[in-house]
Design goal:
The chain has 2 domains: about 120 residues, Fructose-1,6-Bisphosphatase, subunit A, domain 1 (Fructose-1,6-Bisphosphatase, Chain A, domain 1, 2-Layer Sandwich), CATH 3.30.540; about 110 residues, 3-Layer(aba) Sandwich (D-Maltodextrin-Binding Protein, domain 2). By secondary structure, the protein is α+β, with helices and mostly antiparallel strands. The termini are far apart. The protein has a 6-stranded mixed sheet. A 5-stranded mixed sheet has the order 8-7-9-13-11. A two-stranded antiparallel sheet has the order 10-12. The mean pLDDT is about 95. Strand 4 and strand 5 form a beta hairpin. It has 7 helices and 13 strands.
Length: about 250
Amino acid sequence: MAEDDHGLAARLARLAGERLIELRASTSTSDPKALGAAGDEAAHALLGAALAQERSDDPVLSEHGISGPERSPGGRVWIVDPLDGTREFSEPGRADWAVHVALVEKHEVIAAAVALPAQGAVLSTGDPPEPPAGGSGRPRIAVSRSRPPEFVRDIAEDVGAELVPMGSAGAKIAAVVLGEVDAYLHDGGQYEWDSAAPVGVARATGLHTSRLDGSDLVYGRADPWLPDLLVCRGELAEPLLDALSRTRPEGSR
């Protein structure tokens, strides 16, 4: 039986993650930037070659280049981030980095996988995790460990949440999927490859995903820039969106 798109996404994310783990273990360098660049290059090459062989009719949009046939509006396109969290990958012992593989059609993520190689996990739309149980304490919001945005501090204060610093966007959304935190909010812009795969898995798990104004996240556009997003447990969507409507400056909506 031919491998379906869900299975392919999961297998390729796992293979790229295994390659990154091998590279991380075998590379002896005191230059984190060199290790990160090597990881980006190796995972990008693996995913590009595999998709060219397995889905030669589909275009590929990667953080590190475009390949395959020309993209058409609303058509199938693989959106991948070979190494989400290059900085975290380059730091010994850090596990909050990921590999993203997503397939988009008609501007929706229809298959996706997020590998968390240093955590030994692959999250997939083909076999999504059970929805995380509701927390009994204060809501937990994932934020950047190096530059948490001020507006998220305001939102946390509004809804009585605590902030949990962690690395890449994929790791943050995966933490929501796994119930390790309850929400992730981002403003200031990302690209589609930063969130397509983890948002696809989050949706398959039954979580809320949207822009910060509550509108739909739309993928596979001509311009891959995505201004903002919210991923959270369903029961937190209304209070978070309400707080956002009061807290965010009018010009940022």
